[in-house]
Amino acid sequence: MTVTKETLTDSLFTKNDLSRDDASGVLESLLELIKATLESRDDLLISGFGKFCVKGKRNRRGRNPATGEELTLAARNVVTFKCSSVLKDKLNKDRS
């Protein structure tokens, strides 16, 4: 199952005794804060969940799979996520 913003809003609404508008506002504010943090290239650490980091990638050689033509892929920034040990343990508790 994919969790959507609507699913998260409904969960905030039911579990925290908030109106739907308030729950939606809280979620939107949180997402804007996360976006602003990553746009400023700062790391985002959520204890017990994980850490989001912005990493720079250099130019690299690539190939068009349809034509086989070689090309250069431009430098870009990507967001990486490293899971916390707490979450990792919860995800793997059934495998022990």
Explain what this protein looks like in three dimensions.
The protein is of the alpha+beta class. The protein has 2 domains: 1-40; 42-96, HU Protein, Chain A. The chain is built from 3 helices and 5 strands. It has helices spanning 5-15, 20-39, 85-91, and strands at residues 44-46, 50-57, 60-63, 70-73, 76-83. A 3-stranded antiparallel beta sheet has the order 1-2-5. It has a two-stranded antiparallel sheet with strand order 3-4. β1 and β2 form a beta hairpin. α1 packs across α2. It starts with a helix and ends in a 5-residue tail after the last helix.
Question: Quick gist of this model?
Answer:
The protein is α+β, with helices and mostly antiparallel strands and 96 residues long.
Number of domains: 2
- The CATH superfamily of the largest domain bears the name IHF-like DNA-binding proteins
Number of helices: 3
Structural class: alpha+beta
Q: Give the tally of β-strands.
A: 5
As residue ranges, the low-confidence spans are: none
What integer is the average pLDDT? 94
Named CATH architecture of the largest domain: Irregular
What is the topological layout?
Elements (H helix, E strand, L loop, with lengths): L4 H11 L4 H20 L4 E3 L3 E8 L2 E4 L6 E4 L2 E8 L1 H7 L5
Question: What descriptors fit this protein?
Answer:
two-stranded antiparallel ribbon; 2 domains; 96 residues; alpha+beta; 3-stranded antiparallel β-sheet; single chain
